Structure formats: structure tokens, C-alpha cells
Predict the 3D structure of the following.
Amino acid sequence: MSAYSDLSAHFARISAVSNALGILHWDNAAMMPKGAAATRADSMATLAVLRHDMTTDPRVADMLDAAGGDDGLGDWERANLREIGRVFAIETAVPADLVAASSKAVSACEMRWRQAREDSDFVGLLPFLSEVLALQREMGRAKGERLGLDPYDALLNDYEPGGRSAAIDALFDDLADFLPGFVDEALAAQARRPADPPLEGPFPVETQRSLGLRFMAALGYDFERGRLDVSTHPFCGGADNDVRITTRYDEADFTTALMGVLHETGHALYEQGRPQGHMSQPVGQARGMSVHESQSLLIEMQACRSPEFIAFAGPIMREAFGGDGPAWTPEALWRRYTRVERGFIRVDADEATYPAHVILRYRLEKAMIAGDLALADLPGAWNDGMGELLGVTPPNDRLGCLQDIHWPSGGWGYFPTYTLGAMTAAQLFDAAKRADPDILPAIGRGDFAPLVAWLRANVHGQGCLYETDDLLTRATGRALDAGVFKAHLKRRYLEEA
């Protein structure tokens, strides 16, 4: 076991560097003063190169060969060798100077994006984003040459190991055909209901925060290993056993911040539930971003927009804000939380229109990586796509192509995992309810323990022991099936409506 022990010790040190980067990235988004941006960019680039150098150390190949010949390894150790080999192949394809250049470009672009988004200034962001895109193309080519993939699939592989755009194209084209007619039906069903009166604000930020904390606790979030803060774009980050989430508040509408908290808590429960004995190893990491997004969407969309959850949470919301009248009944609140609307903002979208937002971004980023769409033409292409897929046109770039942080932060290839995650969430929640019929009644009592226990056993605690398809098949009895997601949408928005 000495070769394996040496290898795992080496990757534990790499994990420590990743943890430091995670906290710096969280601080960069949540608390760092603007004047520290340049120094922080240098620090993060230095740590990124250090991690890259450690991961691509030639001794890793020798240790992998030596450890692979040990007959005494168990399933977790064998899976760890597989994951280390995957990471090593990807990282050795990219030179250290490209890693450093990309880290610095992303830091600068993220900072500029915050102001550009506020000002709806795509032209001001363009030179920063152009540099990020050029470096992402270069990284995609380098990784693709090593892995035998085209550049986009090589970038996608970072977020969805084994994922390929050809398979996603088929899934998304099917959804793109299904969604327009379904959304029309859902809107027609919605229009037949009496209009609910508006919830009258303002809703103080501190009350919203307290409410979010209360529901985080109900879900099982461990506050000894995390915290809640504010950022321009909600996210879950931090480090092993220090899992931090953020949201953003609007005093005119408390529902968006609350659902943002619930969404990010789903991510955090996954991170807090990873196998402690393998936390510092690649095998102990989350199993790709489609599974990660399934955990946030399972909590937010499947569980916390259910009638059972609203029946529990509605009276708490009403009491917190001193609400009164028909707008605050559980039935009215449920209708509000399941309202279908053709809107501009992805993170505020309902689950019926959300996939269209993702399909748009997926098609655009593929085209930009391939060079088929010039970055300068992105705003127009974005608006055209919104019209085609959702029937609306953003009035400005703040509500259009500047709304997401993913491209400025170097997250090219990430977007498709959101809708893959929504499909996976529907399938996992369906399997969980069949395995334990008390899950929905317990949620109605404010008790998430049965659901989280099932997720811990079937997803969180499995880390990267299995490949994505195998993990899902073991948990649900079948491979990813879009029919489960479609059936969920029809049931909630056509039958329950």
C-alpha cells in the first residue's frame, strides 16, 4: 500500500491548496474590497499554478503505475486511482503558463463583469471577456488533443466527466421541441385560475435572512461547517467542511432570495455529505456538475415547490412578514411559487421555462468556442435566441447576456449541466419517494431527514465511487430518462394546476 499511500498523501496536499483557493474565490465574490483585486488575482494565479504543478508532477505517473499493481486495494482505492488518472490526463495537457494566464484573466473579467452588469455595458466587458474566451479555446484545444475530443467536449468534460455534446444535443433538441407547446398549455391552465392578489412589501432584508437561515436549518445544513452571505450572483463555494453559500435580496420580493437560499443549500448538503474518509481525495469529490445541479434543483424545485413544503412553510413566511389576507394562504403561495412566466432572468425562472434559458446558453457557448459566433455578436444572438425559445426579447444586456457570471469566470461548458441536473433531480426524487413513502408527508411537517437520509445513502456519500450513469442507475433503477422530467412538469403544471 506504500505507493497508494504516497499518492493519496500527495493528493491530500493538492486538496489543501484547492481549499485555500476556494476560500479566496468566495471572498473575492462576497467580501473583498475592490482595491484588492490585482493583488488577489496574483495570489490566486500563483496558487492555481502551484496546484497545477503538484497535479502534473511526473512522480504521479510512477505512483499510479505502482499503486495499480497492488492487489490489496479496495473498491474506493481503485476508484480513486481511476479519478486521479482522469485528473492527471487533463491537467498534464495544459501548460502552467496557460493556467496562470487564465486565472488572471478570469479574476480581471469577474471584477469588470460586476460593474458591466450593473451598467448594462457589454462593450466595456468585451475586451476582458474576449481574453477569457481566447484562453478557454486554447485550453479546450490542448485538453481535446490529449483526450481525443473536440474543444467544446474537452471543456464540458471538466464539469461533466464523460459527457458529450452529441448526446446533449439530442436531449436538448427533444426538450426544445416539447417546451414551447407545454409552456403554452401551462400558461393557459394558469389563466383559468382566479388571479391571486399581490404580496405587499417591503420585505426587510434582515427578516428575509432570518427566514432563509430557519429553512436552511430545517433542511439539515450544518452551520458549524458553513455560513450564509450576499453576492452579486448566488453560489455555493468555500472548502471541505467549510461550505459557504450566498444569495441576493430584493425588498420588493422575498421569494427570489428565499428560493436562491434553498437552491444553494441543496448544493451545500451535497458538499457537507461527501464521504469524510475520502474528503481530500478525487474519489471523495462530487460526481460531476449534473449530479451537483440535481441536488440543488431537487431541493429547490422538486421538494420546496411542492404543496407539502408550502403547507409547512407558508404560515412561517406569513408570520415572519406580518402578512394577512388571501395572498398569504398556502394555496396562494403555492400558486405563486409554481407560476409560469416567460421572463428574462435564468436564476429567477420557473422550472417550466428554465430549460429554455439553459438550451440558449449551451448553443451560444458551443458556437463561440467553435468560432462560429463572434463574441461581439453575442448580444444580438442572445436576443434572437430568447425570442425563438421563450418569446421575449430583453430590453438591455443587463437582463440579457450580462446576467450570468459563468463566462466571465471561465465556466465554459458548465451550462448544460443545469438542465441535465433538472432531469436527474426529477428522476432521483421520484425514486426517493417510491423508496420511502413518508418523504412527502415528512416535508409537510418540516422534516427533511427522510429525504436527506436517502440522498446521503444514494448520492452524497458515494462521492466519485461510480461513474455518473452508474450512480444514477444504482439509485433509480434506470439511466437518465427525459420522460420522468416531462411527466413531472405535466403533473405539476397541467394536472395539479
In short: The CA atoms of residues 62 and 422 lie 40 Å apart.
